[in-house]
Structures are given as C-alpha cells and as structure tokens.
Write a structure and sequence with these properties.
Alpha-lytic protease prodomain-like; Alpha-Beta Plaits; 3 domains; 3-stranded mixed sheet; 6 strands; 14% strand; Cation transporter
C-alpha cells in the first residue's frame, strides 16, 4: 500500500539522491503520521465522551501529542533542504540530524514518564477493570501504529533518513506500549500481582533504550563517521579510471547531511607528464564525479618518479620492510634526495587510526633502523599519516 501512496504523491520517487525527492518523502511520512494520529484522536475522543471514559480520553490526547514527531519530521525536512547561505556555505543538511535528536529526546521522555507511572502502579496497585470496548479501540490503535512503523521504516531505508527511522521507532514504541496495556487489561483480571505496572516498566525500558540508540546514531553522524566503504570504492574506481592517474591516497570524505558529501584526495601522476593535460583530466574527473555521484570532489596532483630505477628499488625495499613490521601499513609520496654522505628516503607512512603515539614512534624507529642496516647512507624522513576512509 505504501508503495502505491509514494508513487501517487512523489514524482521521480526512485531518484532518492535528489534533495527535493528526499524532502517529499519526509513530508509525506509526516503528513501520514499527522493524519493517522488525528483519526485516532477523533475516534477515541468521540467514544470516550460517549462512554464517559477517562482512560480512553487520555489515550486520545496521547495520540494528539504523538503528532509532535510527525511535525518535527516535516520541519526537519524543510529546513535541511534550504539552500546554502553566507553563514552556512555547506548547506543545512544536518538539520535533519538535529530533528532526529529532538525525536529521540521525545521518545526518551515518554519512556521515562511511563517508567515513573509504572513504578507508582507497582507501589500503589489498583484493580484493572476489563472493558471490551477499550480492548477493541486499543487493538485498532495498535494496527494503525504498526502501519505507521512499517511505512516510516520503509521510507527511512529508501532515503537513508535518521528522522524517519526515529519516527519508526516512536511508532514501534507505541505498539509495544499499547500491546502491554491490552495484555495487562486482559490478564489483570486473573492475577493478583500488579501486571500493568510490571509490563509498563519493561516497555518503558525498551522505549528509553530506543531513544538512546537514536540519539547515539545522530551524535555519531554529527561528530563525523568513517564514510561508507561502497562510496569510497566507487570514488576510487572512478578516479583511477582516468588516463594518467596511477594511484591515489589521503582521501577524506566530509558529510554535511544526507546527500551532501564533500571529498578530497591526492592523485599520483608521473613527474614527467604534461601538467596542462593532466590538469584538464583531473578537472574532468572532478566534474564527472559531482555530476554522477553528487560528491563535490577536490583532487590534488602528487607527482611521483617512475623513471628512476634507484627510486623504484628503494621503494620496493621500504615496502618490504613495512610489510614485515605490519602488513596493514602503506606508504605514498615516496622520493629520495641525495647529499654528499647520505641519501634521504622521504615518504608518508599510513598507520591504523587506533595506533597509539608510542606505537607510531616504535614503527618509524624500526623502519629507520632497518634502512640504515641495508645501507648506512639511508636516512628515513617519515611523515606519519592516518587513513580517514578505511
């Protein structure tokens, strides 16, 4: 059903990398959430008044407050799709993460309030009164919330949206809470202990846990995560497909919100190539990558010596040394300079990001010692790097 709704209301729905399409997904999900909660509110309010039931009326206004997540989804989508301005040259894409964090806070607060009321019910138990009408209404609400969870999760996956995944978790929490009330209402008539309070505590813990997980995911994205390996491979393959580029290193990918990636990389080219020609090739690569992937790429040229047998032999020696020390190590920007009594062996060494300063110093010392053992004239000049993409 949700696929039919998406096709009806979102033109070019399959082009999920387009910012306007992403916005329409979030707005549609938010609008459906508002509509569903309004319908539940109206039905429960009407029946609650007819039956003069406080519990049903309370649940009705709970649905009214549930619209907050949907409103935040819409506002977050609208704000994140605003054009860049002077104060925010990279755009407003991270507003979606902030919106997701607000939803996570709402979820956590709801869970905490449920925990508090559940503990109160355990300490001051009250008899659970069974009502067929209440069970039917809660079952209807549960089915609607299940559908809301389903479409939010589906659309969240389609556009990789943290705010829609947060909305899905919010709906799933409502399902768990409603199911707990139904179970407590039915079973409470047959047991003496306060099952409604116990069920409430269990559900509240799950709700707070989901709120914490959403907040953690959002915080990770705001702090900066390692880029998707598939994206790194795609960018690498595209760059290396151009004539004249023989290698790449020092790739960095920055994310400023969904679909807003900026990247830089050093491209290795022969030191005797036509600089004008290779500059045109790199310009073409940058433009094609942006056009085809949406990633704003800056490529820096790094000349490397390919025609010096001595340099190539020394590079092989260093590569062998570092592979014996740690196979995960790599080198780039390799070159040599000769003096009267020594040969400077200069290169950048890429070490694992988790390597401690002491370990890095130990590795460089071992490399320098082995180079001197091979030839006393060799002096290692090592710049230690860290990979930001692997």
């Amino acid at each position: 059903m949700i696929k039919a709704v998406i096709k009806q209301f979102i033109p070019e729905y399959h082009n999920t990398k387009d910012r306007n399409v992403r916005e329409r997904y979030c707005v549609l999900a938010g609008a459906l959430g508002i509509l569903c909660n309004l319908v539940l509110f109206a039905v429960k309010l009407t029946i609650g008044r007819l039956m003069n039931s406080i519990s049903i009326l309370s649940d009705a206004f709970n649905n009214l407050s549930d619209m907050g997540s949907s409103v935040i989804s819409i506002l977050g989508a609208k704000m994140s799709n605003r054009r860049p301005d002077r104060e925010h040259p990279f755009g407003h894409g991270r507003m979606e993460y902030i919106a997701s964090f607000l939803v996570a806070c709402i979820i956590f607060i709801v869970g905490f309030e449920l925990l508090r009321s559940s503990i109160d019910k355990i300490l001051h138990p009250e008899p659970v009164r069974f009502s067929v009408v209440l069970v039917v209404i809660l079952s209807l609400s549960l089915l609607v919330k299940l559908w809301m969870f389903s479409y939010n999760r589906y659309m969240g996956k389609q556009i990789d949206s943290t705010v829609l995944r947060a909305a899905a978790s919010d709906s799933l929490n409502d399902v768990a809470a409603t199911a707990a009330v139904i179970v407590a209402t039915v079973v409470g008539n047959f047991v003496a202990f306060p099952i409604d309070g116990i069920m409430g505590v269990l559900v509240s813990v799950l709700i707070m846990r989901s709120g914490f997980q959403i907040a953690k995911e959002v915080a990770d994205r705001l702090l900066g995560q390692r880029p998707d390996p598939a994206l790194v491979k795609e960018l690498s393959d595209r760059i290396l497909s151009y004539d004249g580029i023989i290698g790449i290193h020092d790739m960095i990918v920055h994310n400023y919100g969904p679909g807003r990636n900026f990247a830089s990389v050093h491209a290795e080219v022969s030191d005797d190539c036509d600089i004008i020609k290779i500059h045109e090739i790199i310009d073409a690569a940058e433009q094609a990558i942006f056009r085809e992937t949406g990633v704003a790429m800056v490529i820096h040229m790094d000349p490397v010596s390919l025609n010096s047998p001595e340099t190539q032999e020394l590079k092989k020696l260093v590569a062998q040394i570092i592979s014996e020390i740690d196979p995960s190590l790599t080198i780039h920007d390799f070159r040599i300079t000769k003096g009267q009594s020594r040969i400077n062996v200069i290169f950048d060494l890429v070490v694992p990001i988790e390597a401690t300063p002491a370990r890095r110093k130990e590795i460089t010392s071992q490399i320098a010692e082995r180079l001197r053992a091979a030839d006393p004239r060799y002096t290692a000049v090592i710049q230690v790097d860290t990979s930001f993409v692997s």
